[in-house]
Amino acid sequence: MKYLKENTLLLDHQSAYRAMHSMETAVLKVLANLLLALDSGDLAMLTLLDLSSAFDSVDNDTLL
After folding, report:
1. How many structural domains comprise the chain?
2. Which of 13-22, 26-35, 52-61 is most confident?
3. Which of 1, 10, 31, 52 shows the greatest Cβ crowding within 10 Å of its Cβ?
4. What is the DSSP code (8-state) at residue 45?
5. Domain around 34
6. Does residue 17 surpass a pLDDT of 80?
7. What is the pLDDT of residues 20-44, one digit of tens each?
């Protein structure tokens, strides 16, 4: 983390593995952006993709 911070390699919106950032803060950021878009009359859409089950179906030795 020290290396990433010193070399500014972390994205501003990255929540994983950062102090004072969590899934809740990430969800709140997304929700706030959606609500701001809707309030200004823009269209808003959220697409979620869960790939966790894709890796469960592959043999670990083959994957490695």
Report:
1. 1
2. 26-35
3. 10
4. -
5. 2-63
6. no
7. 888 888 889 899 999 999 999 999 9
Phi-psi region of 58 (alpha: psi -120 to 50; beta: other; left: phi over 0): beta
CB 1 within 8 A of CB 17: yes
Q: Could you give the CA distance from residue 44 to residue 38 in angstroms, rounded to a whole number? A: 7
Which long-range CB contacts under 8 A does 54-60 form with residues at least 24 apart?
none
pTM for the whole structure: 0.57
The token pair that represents 16 in the structure block: 């994983």
H or E element, residue 52: helix 52-56
Q: What is the pLDDT of residue 59?
A: 80
What confidence score (pLDDT) does residue 38 get? 94
Cα distance between residue 16 and residue 7, in whole Å = 17
